[in-house]
């Protein structure tokens, strides 16, 4: 995994740097520098990156695609530069979608940024068409594979399973009833949704169904459960699910409901992640790792008191997540309207993607911290740019002309 981790870190670093460049385009170099600093020093983004999961690449790749769109937006004329920008941006988003299908909610935004930054109706239409076609090449090999193996020309068959899992977590699909139907014992807290969903899938596959067929059955099971609930119950359950994505332990002080910070206070969660994964895999899925894998996990989990202390201080000082981040993000989204001519580039680049994700999350989500952390790369720049708008409106001291946030603003 060493070189995979290196490649992952390079891609994330490039994406965060380009997020700063996009912010600089919207609000000036100083704002861009603060955005990059906030992203590069964010504990939650570092935590997500260290998991080496596609969730950590979704936002950075979207930033790379958006930067390509801004560098070569549609323009009338015979230049091939806009066409190259559309193709590069589309290929990057195709790769992003291949790694994490939920990234499809981000697909429109590089194109919207390009349309906003470009000119000419025909040039804009051609740019969007090239962008759309360029998304397909990274996806086609896997779709052909699925057609050959599973008989469906699709990228994935997971919507039904996601809907079913989300229904279990919110208890729209009755967990107690499913526990009895599957012949299992014990309590049914929300985290048993992983086990119940997995057992349901395995049972359906054991009947001889293919993955797409099993996915369709799980979709129908979830939809039947929804149909049995009244609208008020569904709205309450989905609202609670979305709120729990940002809300943590109710016994904590309000301003300390930040999950990564609370974990760091109790344990050195980041250094010991490998052991945690091993315990989950062995307990839930009855998986057994090889002796070599166990040795590597133990080696990677070694730490020191000094490292743990430094880790906790970093988290306590710089972690910004949970309800405070959500509130700051929503307020800052409105403040972005005060950015002047660049307002829509900032909105499509930073504020709109989390809102689109949360819209989809209402239907198929579950309150896992990595889903929240996956939004931080969009939300933190939104907060910084919102603060920039406020600072520009503050009265400046006499003789301070040419200093402060205004000096590097494009307007």
What's a concise summary of this model?
With 411 residues, this protein is an all-alpha fold. It has helices at residues 2-27, 29-40, 43-50, 55-71, 81-99, 108-117, 121-134, 140-150, 159-169, 175-181, 193-206, 211-227, 231-244, 259-266, 273-284, 291-300, 305-318, 322-335, 343-364, 369-393.
> Structural class given helices, strands, pairing?
mainly alpha
Residue runs with pLDDT of under 50 for 5 or more positions = 251-256, 399-411
| Envelope shape | globular
Helix content: 55-70%
- The percentage of residues in β strands lies in under 5%
Q: Over all CA atoms, what is the radius of gyration?
A: 23 Å
Question: What's the N-to-C terminus distance?
Answer: 46 Å
Total count of helical runs of at least 4 residues: 20
How many strands, which pairing sense, and closed or not: the largest β-sheet?
A: none
Count of individual beta strands? 0
Oligomeric state of this protein: single chain
Helix and strand run: HHHHHHHHHHHHHHHHHHHH
Average pLDDT rating: 88
């Amino acid at each position: 995994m060493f070189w995979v981790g290196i490649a992952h870190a390079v891609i994330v670093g490039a994406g965060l740097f380009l997020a700063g460049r996009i912010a600089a385009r919207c609000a000036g170099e100083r704002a861009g520098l603060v955005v990059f600093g906030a992203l590069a020093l964010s504990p939650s983004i570092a935590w997500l990156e260290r998991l080496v999961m596609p969730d950590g690449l979704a936002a950075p790749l979207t930033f790379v695609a958006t930067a390509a769109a801004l560098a070569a937006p549609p323009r009338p004329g015979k230049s091939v530069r806009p066409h190259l920008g559309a193709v590069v941006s589309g290929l990057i988003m195709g790769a992003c979608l291949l790694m994490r299908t939920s990234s499809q909610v981000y697909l429109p935004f590089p194109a919207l940024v390009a349309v906003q930054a470009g000119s000419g109706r025909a040039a804009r239409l051609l740019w969007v068409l090239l962008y759309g076609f360029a998304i397909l090449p990274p996806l086609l090999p896997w779709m052909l594979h699925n057609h050959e193996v599973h008989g469906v020309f699709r990228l994935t068959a997971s919507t039904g399973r996601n809907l079913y899992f989300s229904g279990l977590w919110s208890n729209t699909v009755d967990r107690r009833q499913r526990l009895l139907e599957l012949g299992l014992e014990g309590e049914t807290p929300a985290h048993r949704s992983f086990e119940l969903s997995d057992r349901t899938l395995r049972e359906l596959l054991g009947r001889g169904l293919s993955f797409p067929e099993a996915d369709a059955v799980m979709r129908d099971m979830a939809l039947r459960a929804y149909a049995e609930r009244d609208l008020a119950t569904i709205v309450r359950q989905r609202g609670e699910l979305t709120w729990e994505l940002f809300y943590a332990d109710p016994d904590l002080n309000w301003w300390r409901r930040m999950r990564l910070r609370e974990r760091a206070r109790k344990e050195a969660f980041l250094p010991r992640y490998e052991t945690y994964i091993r315990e989950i895999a062995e307990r839930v899925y009855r998986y057994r790792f090889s002796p070599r894998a166990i040795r590597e996990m133990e080696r990677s989990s070694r730490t020191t008191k000094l490292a743990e202390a430094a880790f906790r201080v970093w988290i306590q000082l710089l972690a910004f997540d949970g309800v405070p981040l959500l509130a700051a993000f929503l307020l800052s989204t409105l403040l972005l309207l005060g950015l002047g001519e660049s307002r829509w580039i900032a909105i499509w680049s930073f504020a709109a993607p989390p809102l689109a994700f949360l819209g989809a999350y209402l239907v198929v989500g579950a309150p896992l911290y990595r889903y929240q952390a996956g939004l931080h790369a969009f939300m933190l720049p939104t907060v910084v740019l919102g603060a920039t708008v406020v600072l520009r409106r503050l009265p400046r001291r006499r003789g301070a002309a040419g200093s402060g946030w205004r000096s590097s603003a494009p307007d």
